[in-house]
Design a protein that fits this description.
The structure is a single chain. The chain is α/β, with parallel strands linked by helices. Helix content is 34%, strand content 16%. It has 15 helices and 17 strands. The protein has a 6-stranded parallel sheet. The chain has a 6-stranded parallel sheet with strand order 11-10-9-15-16-17, with helices on both faces. The chain is elongated, with a radius of gyration of 23 Å. The mean pLDDT is 97. Bound molecules: adenosine-5'-triphosphate and 3-phosphoglyceric acid. 3-phosphoglyceric acid binds next to loops.
């Protein structure tokens, strides 16, 4: 990575404004998955051990510039304190007198968590006034919020214009792993693209077609490709306006020598429910009033084999409606194949695929699970992430 990191600067005695992505899932005020908090610990611990005065900032949810009581960061501060095994001071504001006083009270190695930065309308507008107010609290800016790096907001981008700005360890790792996959991949390199819609994956498929040896398609978006091949898809997800695009992707794959893998059989259901009637049918025999909700057993085997023969696999998007047990087997098979393939470096591109891997209890068997959903998708589209661009070059 050509950006400076916290290793390249002196942090001792400095007030460090560290942007993290603590946008964790919550239910009834309780954190249901603290992966993102844990992922930021190496940076926070480094700052503590090296005598920084640590000021953490994050968003939670989408409060749209207003105070939303349920989106306060108190539960996050508590969890962070437990994980760090040290007190974490939490303010009820992210700027202003209360915050300035709390920062002035910090000793070397102390940790302060500011209130949800998205309570301020200036955050998402990348208002220079708010960015400056954040910057005035600190001597150094550290961005460890990879999950929010695709957002040009006051605490992710704007602030970097007013302070020396470097990356944290999580940011560095995400950029290095995803960056290597895209620029210098071990081969055979396979991308597995699933999820609901072609529309959301156009950029990724386009970019990856130039880089991969194998492209595996699954999930709801596969049926637009199936239709493009001339088969009926019944009531399966279909984006009529993307059929031509699907055709052009398949042609482009052929031109480039990319092997393009589509489901050969699917699990169809008579309604969208876990207890629906189901059957396995070949891809060219989807009944007109049934919908395909998972890849079938032959496809699972086919995809397993491709995974086994790959040196690097990047996976984004589930193979079926994995939230329902009946339609989870395709996604599980891909996760298991990645877990078993010892010589295959597996990169999970955040979002639902990461949730699936967690659900199947296979997270610790993957080589890298991105903490970014939208951010990793934009990175894989080949886009520059504003939160990264704004950091100081080496
Ligand atoms: N065959 C299918 N029919 C209908 N829905 C499907 C099918 N296969 C997968 N899905 C649904 O697609 C959803 C996931 O797709 P989505 O594009 O939202 O997430 P993703 O690809 O993981 O991207 P992100 O990283 O943004 O979360 C899941 O909720 C899953 O149930
Ligand atoms: O959950 C995420 O992907 C990040 O925290 C970014 O959140 P956002 O999509 O609300 O900007």
């Amino acid at each position: 990575m050509n950006k400076k990191t916290i290793r390249d600067v002196e942090v001792r005695g400095k007030r460090v404004f560290c942007r993290v992505d603590f946008n964790v899932p919550m239910e009834d005020g309780a954190i249901t998955d603290d992966t993102r908090i844990r992922a930021a610990l190496p940076t926070i611990q480094y700052l503590i051990e090296h005598g920084a005065k640590v000021i953490l900032a994050s968003h939670l949810g989408r409060p749209k510039g207003k105070v939303v009581e349920e989106l306060r960061l108190d539960a996050v501060a508590k969890r962070l304190g437990e994980l760090l095994e040290r007190p974490v001071v939490k303010t009820n504001e992210a700027i202003g007198d209360e915050v300035k006083a709390a920062v002035a009270n910090l000793n070397e190695g102390d940790v302060l968590l500011l209130e949800n930065v998205r309570f301020y309308p200036g955050e998402e507008k990348n208002d220079p006034e708010l960015a400056r107010a954040f910057a005035e609290l600190a001597d150094l800016y550290v961005n460890d919020a990879f999950g929010a790096a695709h957002r040009a907001h006051a605490s992710t981008e704007g602030i970097a214009h007013y302070l020396p700005a470097v990356a944290g360890f999580l940011m560095e790792k995400e950029i290095e792993v995803l960056g290597k996959a895209l620029s210098n991949p071990d081969r055979p390199f396979t991308a597995i693209i699933g999820g609901a819609k072609v529309k959301d994956k156009i950029g990724v498929i386009e970019n990856l077609l130039d880089k991969v040896d194998n492209l595996i398609i699954g999930g709801g978006l596969a049926y637009t490709f199936v239709k493009a091949l001339g088969h009926d898809v019944g009531k399966s997800l279909l984006e009529e306006d993307k059929i031509e695009l699907a055709k052009s992707f398949m042609e482009k794959a052929k031109e480039k020598g990319v092997r393009f893998y589509m489901p050969v059989d699917v699990v169809v259901a008579d309604r969208f429910a876990n207890d629906a009637n189901t059957k396995v049918v070949p891809i060219d025999a989807i009944p007109s009033d049934w919908e395909a909700l998972d890849i079938g057993p032959q496809t699972r085997e086919l995809y397993r084999d491709v995974i086994r023969q790959s040196k690097l696999v990047v996976w984004n998007g589930p193979m079926g409606v994995f939230e329902m047990e009946t339609f989870s087997h395709g996604t599980r098979a891909v996760a298991e194949a990645l877990a078993e393939a010892a010589d295959t470096y597996s990169v999970i591109g955040g979002g639902d695929s990461a949730a699936a891997v967690e659900k199947f209890d296979l997270a610790d068997k993957m080589d890298h699970i991105s903490t970014g959903g939208g951010a990793s998708l934009e990175f894989m589209e080949g886009k520059q992430l504003p939160g990264v661009v704004a950091l100081n070059d080496k």
